[in-house]
Design a protein that fits this description.
By secondary structure, the chain is mostly helical. It has 21 helices and four strands. The chain is globular.
Amino acid sequence: MSFESAGYPLLPVLPELVLAAGAMVLLLLGAYRGQQTTRLVTGLAICLLVLAGGLELLLPAGKLTTFAGGFIVDDFARFLKILTLIGSVATLVLSAEYLADPSRQIFEYSILVLLSTLGMMVLISAGDLIMLYLGLELMSLALYVVAASNRDNVRSTEAGLKYFVLGALSSGMLLYGASLIYGFTGTVSFAGIAAATKAGTGIGIVFGLVFLLAGLCFKVSAVPFHMWTPDVYEGAPTPVTAFFASAPKVAAMAVFTRATLTAFPGILLQWQQIVVFVAIASMVLGSFAAIGQKNIKRLMAYSSIGHMGFALVGLAAGTPEGAQGVLVYVAIYVSMTLGSFAVILTMKRNGQHVENISDFAGLSRTNPLLAFVFAMLLFSLAGIPPLAGFFAKFYVFVAAIKAGLFTLAVIGVLASVVGAFYYLTIIKVMYFDEPLVRLDPMRIELRTVLAVAGLFNIFFFVYPGPLVSVATAAAKSLF
């Protein structure tokens, strides 16, 4: 059902328009009133994100399109947009303490998160290559600035610069791929490309597809385009790292899934080979490279590379079940990641953040509840049953096995076993090493995010139905 003919051409983009207009108003407010508005702007930004989520849920059911099919709102887009908005709201909540520091009163921070989220929402609804690129750049440009938001810190500035340079390179590759695809199919819309590739593919389309997927692999930090991830995660301020690890990954995985399944269903074998290779490389590198890490944020970077590999296992199946597995995986991954970063942000001694794994020593004796919840999140990240992370991996592996990708599933299970080692190392440090100095008390906003994420992961097995059924309906809307 399309609302273009019904006289409501902008109805499908209403949440995005509200976010864009709200961000402009907040920018004027901050510019007029100065840095003392940081708290107010952050509060209003959270309200705007919640409002956008409410509007998204209130849009008419079914498939809505506008901009000549370039912007699509279906069950798939709704599911992932809500997930993205949850990630962005949680990031702003986690950033409260960071922004409360008098030396870091930067009202622009929340506005950049808003604009980046706007880019993600456009990206998730992209129905053609032009909308895909617009969404990707709007998301990325704000992320480059946010990475370098701590202007007095050399590592933060370096992280922003590295991310910008490599991001520009990946955008160039993606654009080159998109231009090849357009040149050989004569259309930029995903539906048009699908129709053109049914008749047979030339070498030009395959080349274009390779470059397009290379650009998307950079955004989900999949091997071999992962090289920016550890340095940027370590150098960026911790709340920014939490943002990088959650919402943008959802949006990038969404467009990866939509572009491959809706634009190239006729050449499944060609892109399946690429996705299988990228998934295996990401799982293996993510598992082995994390073992030697001493810094918890670098470890989380390699962990996220591995998890994106696991999510791509579902996509490699190329079936509705595989797409459902990807959606369940990213939803659970976001909750595990935000909970883990709430713990990392809590690690403060005498007002100073500590980031080394050795600083978690003896946490079970100084703060037993925090240690228990973090241990549960780490077990979930490792995929230990009956926690949520186990179900995430279960759905993608079952989809791969049903699609006949047995080798991929076996390598995934083995990579999971290796990955469990470094998560267990942190748990061993917390429970068996001698305690260091007691941590500063945990702030209420961190406690809230950690409680929600922890309870979701621990009790997911009791009632997984709602998430799985919503993910199933979302996946079916692509086929």
